[in-house]
Amino acid sequence: MSQISNLYRLQQIDSQLDTANSKLQSIEKILLDDLSIQSAQQVVANADEQHKSLVRKLHEAENKSYDTRIKIEFVEASLYGEKIQNPKELQELQTEITSLKRLLSGLEDKQLEIMMEVEEAEEKLMWANEGLLEAQKQQIERNADLHGEKIKLLSQIDRLESERNATLPTISETDNSLYEQLRKSRNGVAVARINARACNACGTTLTAALVQATQTTGPLVRCPTCGRILYPG
Q1: Vertex 200, ends 3 and 179: CA angle to 5°?
Q2: How far apart are CA 108 and CA 100, in angstroms?
Q3: DSSP-assigned states of every residue in 162-218
Q4: Can you give the pLDDT at residue 20?
Q5: What pLDDT sits at residue 150?
Q6: Which fold does the domain 34-169 belong to in CATH?
Q7: N or C: which end of the chain has fewer CB within 10 A?
Q8: Domain boundaries for CATH 1.10.287.1700 within the chain
Q9: How far apart are CA 174 and CA 3, in angstroms?
């Protein structure tokens, strides 16, 4: 096999390696990406905090209602206990009871309102947890497919690396140095195939003499425009 053929073979291997490594990096990035889980977890955390806040609020309302009932019972006991005979004091107690019962009614209405909010918050928390479970399930399924693809890519990369190592000794140090230099400066493509008398990389039309020169065993021929090594195909 000629030197240019060996270089073209190396280019094919490296292009496949570039593609495989790029796909592998993308897969690794996706596998590390748990934004959907984090988002679902944040929704659960917010719903849980809202629920806890309302439960605390409900307990406070229940305590206020309870304290007011106890106070009403205490005042009623004083009113009907026959220990107080002064009409003015009795009237004051009656007024206080009326006021306390009005307060209790308002507290009970508020308590009922908060209870409904707690029930709504419990439902939101339930849906948030279900959303988290669904996100975790989808991630597990997605990652299973990606792990399978990752294994295939690693196997492909290992095979290509072996082929590359077997090809390198067939290329002179000088040609390999030029090849690596062009790979870095020409977006990974150092060797371009000639297609219909044109450089397949940049599209420059080549002279017949230049095409003919690529078919000899002489020095490597490069595209006059992009500088890549030309392969006659």
Answers
A1: 35
A2: 12
A3: HHHHHHGGGS-HHHHHHHHHHHHHTTT--EEEEETTEETTT-PBPPHHHHHHHTSSS
A4: 95
A5: 94
A6: Helix Hairpins (1.10.287)
A7: N
A8: 34-169
A9: 11
